Amino acid sequence: MLTAGDVSAMVRGPQVHRDVYTSQQVYDLEMRHLFVNTWVFVGHESQTPHKGDYYTTQIGAQPVIQVRHGDGEIKVLHNRCPHKGTKIAIDRSGNTGKFFRCPYHAWSFKTDGCLLAIPLKKGYQDTELNKTENAKGMKAVGAVRVYRGFVFARLADEGISFEDYFGDSLSSIDNTVDRSPAGRLEVAGPPLRYMHQCNWKMLVENQTDTCHPMVAHESSAGTAVGIWKEMGNPEPRPPAMEIIAPFMSPYEFFENMGIRTWPNGHGHTGVNHSIHSEYSEVPGYFPALSEAYGEQRAKEILNENRHNTVYFPNIMIKGPIQQLRNFIPLGPDRTLVESYIYRLVDAPDELLARTAMYNRMINAPTSIVGHDDLEMYERAQEGLVSNGLEWVDIQRLMTGVEDYSEEVVENGTTERQMRNQFDAWVKFMTVSMGTA
Amino acid sequence: MLDKAADVTKDQVVDFIYDEARMLDEGRYDEWLALWLPDGHYWMPLDYKQTDPHLVTSLLYEDNFMLRLRVERLNGARTFSQKPKSRCHHVIQRPFIDEFTPERIVTNTSMHYVETRLDEQFLLALVATHELRVVEGQLRIANKRVDLLNSDAAFGSIQLLP
């Protein structure tokens, strides 16, 4: 059995031990500690707009239900009947009315999880059921917080507060939502679901890996630029050019775009500009935003072009195009990636059309860009088996001792955000492991 | 100027659908691209019975530029996910011809699609809907829609064209 000391020893600043990606024991500990102690993304409130609406997902390996309770609040419940363990809801979404009813023995529960009724209840009259936790109903998660429409939960009853956990990193969610003239997002359709035979942390790290696009994606972005030139550089450019060509930007572009890291493993690329900066203007959008916020504020909102913001442990959002990717761990070498898009309420449809295009061109199982990313992760998962070397290197632009409790902005090609994630990883893995 | 659908027979339409699948299986992509009218889209919905290709996500909704990019990439020297290359195989049922007018021809074809690379192989069941036109006596693809039976499932990479 691994101790807190063993886990800490896997991360030594500039390098991490390969077991963090390959070991079943480490994965089990992540599920038992990391995904219990941190605030994990559950869903968006627009996925459950009406009373009784529910949506099933998981927090780490834990199956949960997000449901809109009778009082209008969103609850997050463990998706398990307290009787025999049957999953209460099996479909991805639906409406359960005023209560959940287990399909096995008809135990029923209010939409906040409280036990409503058990058929033939007299069978429990002289038993000790009432003294158990099972008699209370479907167990709720430790804490839930809806921030500007995004639902987060902490499985642990006690732990770091939402505000302390995310701090100023919430500015990326703010910028995403502020881009709606109504200050509101709505989920647009189901997510892409892309299965990866690799560890979930590889995907999270890749979100701020700015030295790979021009290499791994040369075959798609480079070929796109080549075809466009062959066609005689036609304007307006084919839509694909606007989306894919920026991946071929030179190293200087990525160096200058900057990376910001926040405490607790959060961080983002694209401090100064990003691959989303040069998208064409959509008619009617700026006037609508100006009317809502004033011209000055509207400009400020649109001048923020953050590329990828990682909310540790396992989501990334793209503010300028309202995309969220959820890296759901299913095993040490298995990760389900769900990529959602959102409509900016009261903004022109063209913005959503561009976001939908980005989602399918870059992040679909059929995406020529996604194919090369997945190829890299899966090769890494296979290569890490090698005993030739046991350590993975993440010390690019690490010039001295780093204090991850500070917010900093650095050269856009630093691997500091990966180190920042591993600092948070050790912290939230070991906080509940004890010292034994 | 469109010719009449009467200029082609239903047998020719059926042969066309079979020929297209064979081109994909044999990797004859230049010939395959030449089947397309320039404004055509290859659409693979993400959701069962999806009606909108624009404002929700699809697996594919590709114009001529994207299709050309997709097939040119397959032969690139630095196309890492195609080292080694994938292969594919379509088994198709005789197409239904749902519309057969001078303006357009619509076919509905059930297929099993197999794709393989290294030691992995997967099977997709699908229905392909072709919208065809006759231009200068030749059948051409105006649009193609591919509905996977399990379009909402989680997939690994699907690298070639079902």
User: What's the β-strand tally of chain B?
Assistant: 7
What's the total helix number of chain A? 15
The shape of chain A, in one word, is: globular
Give Rg of chain B in angstroms.
16 Å
Stretches of chain B where pLDDT is under 50 for at least 5 consecutive residues are none
Name the shape of chain B in a single word. Answer: globular
Total domain modules of chain B: 1
The most extensive interface between chains reads: A-B, 47 and 33 residues
- What order do the helices and strands of chain B follow? HHEEHEEEEE
Relative helix content of chain A? 25-40%
Largest sheet properties of chain A: 9 strands, antiparallel
The number of helical elements of chain B comes to 3
Poorly predicted runs of chain A are: none
Distance between the amino and carboxyl termini of chain B: 31 Å
Number of strands of chain A: 21
Describe the structure.
- Chain A is α+β, with helices and mostly antiparallel strands and 436 residues long.
- Chain A folds into two domains: 40-147, Rieske [2Fe-2S] iron-sulphur domain (Rieske Iron-sulfur Protein); 189-430, Naphthalene 1,2-dioxygenase Alpha Subunit, Chain A, domain 1, CATH 3.90.380.
- Helices cover 32% and strands 22% of the residues of chain A.
- Chain A contains 15 helices and 21 strands.
- Chain A has helices at residues 4-9, 19-22, 24-37, 162-166, 171-178, 200-206, 213-216, 218-230, 239-244, 251-257, 285-293, 295-303, 349-363, 368-383, 416-430, and strands spanning 15-17, 40-44, 53-59, 62-68, 74-78, 93-95, 99-101, 108-110, 115-117, 143-147, 150-154, 185-187, 192-196, 259-261, 267-269, 309-311, 315-318, 323-331, 334-344, 391-393, 408-410.
- In chain A, helix 3 crosses helix 15 and helix 11 (285-293) crosses helix 12.
- Chain A is globular and about 85 Å long.
- In chain A, 47% of the residues are buried.
- Chain B has three helices and seven strands, in the order ααββαβββββ.
- In chain B, strands 1, 2, 3, 4, 5, 6 and 7 form a seven-stranded mixed beta sheet that branches.
- Chain B is globular, with a radius of gyration of 16 Å.
- The A-B interface holds A 188-197, 216, 218-220, 222-224, 226-228, 238-241, 244, 336, 339, 341, 343, 349, 352-353, 356-357, 359-361, 364-366, 368, 370-372, 374-376 and B 44, 46-47, 54-61, 63, 65-66, 68-70, 72-73, 76, 78-82, 152-159.
